[in-house]
Please model this.
Amino acid sequence: MKKNMKPKSINRSHSTKGEVKIAKLIGFCSGVTVAVRGTEKILGIPEKSPASKKVYCVGHLIHNSNVIMRLRKKGLRVVRHVKSVPEKTTVVIRAHGLPVDEIKTLKKKNCEIRDFTCPILKKIHRTIERLRNEEFFIVIVGNPAHAEVRALRSHAGENCAVVENEKQARNFKKKRKIAVICQSTITEERFLKIAGLFVGKARELYILNTICAEVTARRIETIRLAKISKMVIIVGDKKSSNTRHLAEIAKNFCRVRIVSDAKELEKGEIVYPLTITSGASSPEDLVMEIYGKVVKKDD
Ligand code: SF4
Model:
């Protein structure tokens, strides 16, 4: 996108050309920004020179295939398991964090670990460890297969369970002390429904809302804009849970499309008033590029 395509009126404002609005809260969240910028620095971006050492990441650094592809071209090696990481190499830890035993394995391999786990998630890791020391049974409301949840769970030890739905919560056996927390990207509605079912299941019950405030702010803004739009385009990767949740919320009010490239949009499918927003792992320049293409496509 040409630099002058980002007029002041649409830079972080609702005032846009015609019937197209761009949400204020677009682009990377703070945790993703730290992970991407930190990894770029290690890889020697923006300088042209390739990284002088091999840099590995176990799993995707963030949930955005385009960004990962760009980092791969600059030398990032993405592997599925810690066992695929060679000894004495540099390893960046993804924004969602890695399970404790996997970090231990990397240390045993004498790897240089550059930890880009989101600081908000690190704080939750410390909270889980405190609750574990206080002998709480820890319940994590979320998706057990999600990288963030796997890392959270690893800090809780044996006395921990991941609960995905209301049925599992209803069938949960009583314990002496239960602490209920959640994956940072689930909706408040789902957390309240599931956490509420633990009332009466323990003599001591502690419920802690660990939903990320940045995710909540985007949801509130998306609801407000979806209510006054006929269509919402969410720039993001379908693998990203916060992107999918934004789509679920907006669908209650209008037509919704998740796109990672303007090419995915058919001419004539856009309806107005239109809002463009993004998931937390989509760069702001991609959102602005899609905005430019959408406006041009429908001219
Ligand atoms: S969504 Fe929130 S918790 Fe997740 S990486 Fe971004 S800032 Fe961190």
